[in-house]
Dihydroorotase (Granulicella sibirica), 469 residues
Amino acid sequence: MKVSPLCRAVFSCTVLLSTAAFSQGRNRPPMPPNPLPYDLLLKGGHLIDDKNRIDAISDVGIKDGKVAAVGADLKTSDALKTIDVKGLYVSPGLIDLHTHVYTGTGERGSYAGDESVYPDGFTLRNGVTTIVDAGSSGWKNFDDFKDKIIDRSKTRVLAELNIVGSGMRGGKYEDNLDDMDGKLTGDKAKLFPGVIVGVKSAHFTGPEWKPYDQAVIAGNIANIPVMIDYGANRVERPLIQLVSSHLRPGDIYTHCFSGLRGEQDQKTGGPSEALLIMRKRGIYCDVGHGGGSFAWTVAAPILKAGYKPDSISTDLHIGSMNNGMKDILNVADKMMVIGETTQEVIAQMTWHPAREIKQEQLGNLSVGAIADVAVLSMETGNYGFVDMYNTKMMGTKKLVCELTLKDGKVVYDLNGISADMWDATEHSADQRQSRRWTTFNERPFGATHGQRFPASVPVGSIPAPTTPK
Ligand SMILES: [Zn+2]
């Protein structure tokens, strides 16, 4: 029988598609139950969990995407898979409170478009498992943002809704007082509890208080915090008045170390009266580094005076991703250069931001918590850390993300600490169960492995596949 080219093409496409479907797990046979206490055990790491006041060598056992046990000497025989994390820090998955990820709309010069980035390329490789998009969308385009990004990302993407109904699309929209409706914004947020976790005001250039007061109205309706990027510095609305009488305790002031709107005392270089009032009232100080919101001349003296941020965030977007900001670990490194400890910066990327957005199921590794985990190494050397003015401060420590778990499974592994050697003849863990602890493909081992490379691995020398107990 003659096979037409079209038919051949359809056949090979079908084979390709079914192979792809298999490797993505759709056609795989169901996994056998795991009778052991853990799917995955992280062994011997230095656990830093601010919520539970843990700063010690401790193992973490994980099952069904949740933390099953935390403690010294958890048994490897109780887990399907053990990863040795000795010499590394084990942290709850990092939370980045201020990012811009509403891309894919095709709109130029807009944070609801080309100024934003797709989250997964910037998050998991830095230990970040949860991000908050800070106001790229408003109540009018949140559904589109949710469809395009939130529902399609591996990263847990949450949102602060812009008080501007049209979102962060440039001055024409962001200065339009008629598009700032606290009631409509709050009502929209109430429809998505745990996803819309805040209200954002940003980039406003006018003298009015309306954006901030409407944001607070929305925050009160949905019982969520407001995050303020204070826009243009206007004498008509001084920072001290914003934090004294417009914002509520629990609201968030981002770009805390920009120095552009009265954050710094001009005589001492330390925190201004406004920053001190913020702290006294329980308004959070968030870094929000971005492309133009972190200056050494501001941050260093304020830190030296003992004023530390509540949370470290990136303000990730196309304008910050490749300049001084780089990624959240680089921002954390900077805070260590000017006096913070590793324990403090980890707290400011985990439990603190979880509390700020009232998502206390995140940012900790209590038993029963979601098993989002960042495993970090501390490199030492000579490093330059660059601020918004392209000036640098030198440092000796650099955090590097070695391994990231999301919902209990490996989603990033820099040096293959979860992987077996390429020429191993047996799997270190039952490969039928691998989907319980990793999202990566597992190549068959044993005889099947040998058959793929008969020239390099003599088939007769390899034992038959075994079924691990
Ligand atoms: Zn921003």
